[in-house]
Amino acid sequence: MAQGKKILLSGIQPSGRPHIGNYFGAMKQFVEMQRDHDCFFMIADYHALNTIQDAGALQKGIIDLAIDYLAVGLDPKKSVIFKQSDVSEHTELAWIFDAITTMPFLARAHAFKDAEAKNKEISVGLFNYPMLMAADILLYDTDIVPVGADQKQHVEITRDTAEKFNRIFGKTFNLPEAKILPTVAVVPGIDGRKMSKSYGNTVPLFAEDEEIEKLVMSIVTDSSGGIPKNVYEIHKLFRSEDDLASLYQSKEGKYKELKEKLTHDIKAFIRPLRERRKAIANDTDAVRNILKDGGTRAKEKASAKMEEVREKVGVKLY
Ligand code: TYM
């Protein structure tokens, strides 16, 4: 890896098909930033274990996400593409962070509070989720973490945890910064709420044409104004606001035509990505090899950092 470049790390959970919120909020930045950063792109499989407890489904999710990463343009020659579980240092460091973190501190996390408000059964792993994420980031001396707005608090928790560790054991960890693009920080779903798998309001990134047509037609429109806000907000991802201004003016009140135009634009955007994805999916052995190699490269860096951590906390004797 080149000297002097900033280190970037980010990850996605292999918990189903990625959607255009994942793409515009995070993956697009991953692809663009590969050129001038030392990048680590992770498949957060141990995070996903909190929700996917079916070996076949998790295995499929991991391979699928690796294919998705490659299809959008992550390049194993430029970046390290790996899965979290291949680098056992992540869970080891998470344990050390657990030991220095209090329950009230973690109880302030939005993800935990949301789950609690919905009366969900919360696993210890879900409660500790931010500690594993802090380990993911801090093991690599990461400078930049490109994410959507929903991950902002997790990166703040990571910084607080790094500071706390440094205070107790001496300077060890770099303080990373989240990189959140304001225009796509929260991509809305077809019902106007944040696009999220758990709301069932997504447009999958590799959707087939027919699926795109159905989804766009089901976008909830507010009939009070000439401009259907939810249609416009999604359209903005695919066309400049200048283009859209004249289009939406000339088609004021014509929701069906505007939706047809949006369908056309989404299809044109997704088609080449979907084709590339299909070609990559034909050779899953090659995909496994890319992950395996990425795991080896990630482990090299993480294990050196972990040696330093073991020494700092006092468990290293030889
Ligand atoms: P995950 O898998 O939920 O989402 C992956 C990425 O997509 C972004 N995103 C969005 N951005 C804009 N608008 C939306 N509607 C939208 N929905 C999702 C997320 O912000 C995220 O960037 N905890 C992480 C995975 C993770 C991670 C890490 C990330 C594990 N370890 C270390 C960075 C660094 C998560 O669950 O993302």
Please give the radius of gyration in angstroms: 21 Å
Please trace the helix and strand order, writing H or E for each element. Answer: EHEHHEHHHHHEHEHHHHH
For this structure, the CATH topology of the largest domain is: Rossmann fold
Low-confidence segments, given as residue ranges, are none
CATH superfamily of the largest domain: HUPs
Shape: globular
CATH architecture level-2 label of the largest domain: 3-Layer(aba) Sandwich
State the helical fraction. Answer: 55-70%
Give the percentage of residues in beta strands. 5-15%
CATH class membership of the largest domain:
Alpha Beta
Number of domains: 2
Biggest β-sheet description: 3 strands, parallel
Number of helices: 14
Q: State the separation between the terminal residues, measured CA to CA.
A: 29 Å
The secondary-structure class comes to mainly alpha
User: Which ligands accompany this protein?
Assistant: tryptophanyl-5'AMP
Please count the beta strands (DSSP E, at least 2 residues each).
Answer: 5
Strand order of the largest sheet: 1-2-3
Mean pLDDT over all positions: 96
Could you please describe the fold and organization of this structure?
The chain is mostly helical. The protein folds into two domains: 6-183 and 284-313, HUPs (Rossmann fold, 3-Layer(aba) Sandwich); 197-278, Tyrosyl-Transfer RNA Synthetase. Helix content is 55%, strand content 8%. It has helices at residues 20-33, 45-48, 55-72, 89-100, 103-106, 110-117, 124-127, 129-138, 152-169, 209-217, 229-235, 241-250, 255-281, 284-313, and strands spanning 6-12, 37-43, 80-83, 144-146, 177-179. The strands form two sheets. Strands 1-2-3 form a three-stranded parallel beta sheet. Strands 4-5 form a two-stranded parallel sheet. Helix 8 packs across helix 9 (152-169) and helix 10 (209-217) packs antiparallel against helix 13. The protein is globular and about 75 Å long. The two termini are 29 Å apart. The model has no long low-confidence stretch (mean pLDDT 96). The site of tryptophanyl-5'AMP (TYM) has 26 residues, from strand 1, helix 1 and helix 8.
